[in-house]
Amino acid sequence: MSAMLKKRYGPWVDQGPTSSIDHAVRMRVLAIPQAGMGAWAFHGWQAALPETVELLPVELPGRNSRMLEPKGQSMRQLVTALVDALAETLRETPFVVFGHSLGAWMAYEVCVELQKRGGPTPVGLVVSGARAPQLADPKNDADRVQPRMADLPSRAFWAHFERRYGANPDLAHVAVKEHVEPLLKADFRLFETYQPRLAVLPYAVVACAAVGDDRVLDSQLEAWRERCGGGFAMQRFDATWPPWATPHRWPVDDPIAFLAWFGPWLCSH
């Protein structure tokens, strides 16, 4: 049994404690987190997945175990570096790409980059909490009050952040806010300046979100169908969340319903 092998795939993957068994793995999941978060957001998932599935939680530069590295300057630059680092690993075993929110767009761009390079080809793409990439312009953001946040002064940034995502008690202290604000703004800038490469992916695409997540409309999830050439599905699933939060945080607050669907879906592919 492999345990605490945090960096066996290099700096771009931080598995944390894992219960995957090397010889049993038949499918991998490259999982890309939302803005401001790191690989830790997925560290509880492995135990809930079948032993034949190995989770590869992505650690982006500029945070957590890669705190001293420069933050990504563009979606294209990050995706190119990620694919450069992991393409050979992904060739070894069938794999699915998953991403939530900002990570959903990054997951899509990973698939586009892999297609551009001629492989390896995922079994499918699963995206959560994000409108389809052809709707990336901030004018389509579900937040009509303040769709652009990356360049706001600090006080206004936090006011709109809490209005949109809730007042996280872990971010209540001024020193904590000062520490995480540069990372959050850098990630929001990636989100707000994203220029997609529009392609049709020749495999399954699933677009999902938690029930009640108002960061993405049903019509914006349905629009992912235009990016799919191999079987499209859309769904919302139940989740619970702390009283201060919103359903958009489901990957860390309550992934149970999603994982109950995801595990069998992976095994069926």
From TrEMBL:
The record's annotation in SUPFAM superfamilies points to:
alpha/beta-Hydrolases
A GO BP annotation = lipid biosynthetic process
Identify the domain of life: Eukaryota
Which ranges carry the Thioesterase domain? 29-239
**Could you tell me which Pfam families the record lists for this protein?**
Thioesterase
State the family it belongs to.
Belongs to the thioesterase family.
Task: Report the protein name in the record.
Answer: Thioesterase domain-containing protein
Gene source species: Pelagomonas calceolata
Q: What is the lineage of its organism?
A: Eukaryota, Sar, Stramenopiles, Ochrophyta, Pelagophyceae
